[in-house]
Specification:
This protein has 60 residues and is mainly beta. The chain has one domain. It has a three-stranded antiparallel β-sheet, with no helix packed on it. A two-stranded antiparallel sheet has the order 3-4. β1 and β2 form a beta hairpin. It is globular and about 30 Å long. It starts with a strand and ends with a strand.
Length: 60
């Protein structure tokens, strides 16, 4: 079964959010500016329309 929404948070967990699927796009970036703050070989980005994004806790 495919989920109809996914949840996430900022790195420290102070802000939590939920997005309703499907996303508009999803991609990976390998540039040094995106990799540096995460210490990873790539970063995954996604986009959803504003009406499908909601902050569930913390400040938004």
């Amino acid at each position: 079964m495919t989920p109809s929404s996914v949840t996430g948070s900022c790195f420290c967990g102070a802000v939590k959010f939920e997005i309703e699927l499907p996303t508009l796009f999803c991609g990976h970036c390998h540039c040094s500016m995106c990799r540096r703050p995460h210490g990873a070989s790539f970063v995954t980005w996604t986009a959803v329309p504003p009406e499908r994004f909601s902050v569930t806790s913390g400040e938004g």
